[in-house]
Amino acid sequence: MELLSPLAPDRSIAPEQAARAADPEGWHRWLSRVRTVSVGLAREGRLVITRHGKPADPNQFKGVYRLRLPLPTEGGLTAPEPAGEG
Q1: What is the C-alpha separation between 33 and 14, in angstroms, rounded?
Q2: 17-48 pLDDT, tens per residue?
């Protein structure tokens, strides 16, 4: 999530970037873990897995994919409502 937060809302990263952030030397070992965690976060609505620039079903996607934060129109995470006075 730290890699995605500073990006523009429609920008994404390759899973390899997340793996390299975890272990620059042995990043290949992390790729399956990145995928597993990404699927879990996508199911929670906290992350979007994309294929060919379009959201993919986290339960059925195959092949090359990218990761991005949900857009406001996708019903992902939203900022909490401010507490009212009183």
Answers
A1: 14
A2: 999 999 999 999 999 999 999 999 999 999 99
Within the chain, where are the H helices?
A: 15-22, 31-43
Tokens 């899973």 correspond to 15
How far is residue 16 CA from its own chain's centroid? Answer: 12
Range of the domain at 37: 15-70
Q: From CA 7, how far away is CA 29, in angstroms rounded?
A: 25
Helix (H, G, I), strand (E, B) or coil at 10: coil
CA 36 to chain centre: 11
At 6, is the secondary structure helix, strand, or coil?
Answer: coil
Q: What's the confidence (pLDDT) of residue 78? A: 41
CATH of the domain at 48: 1.10.10.10
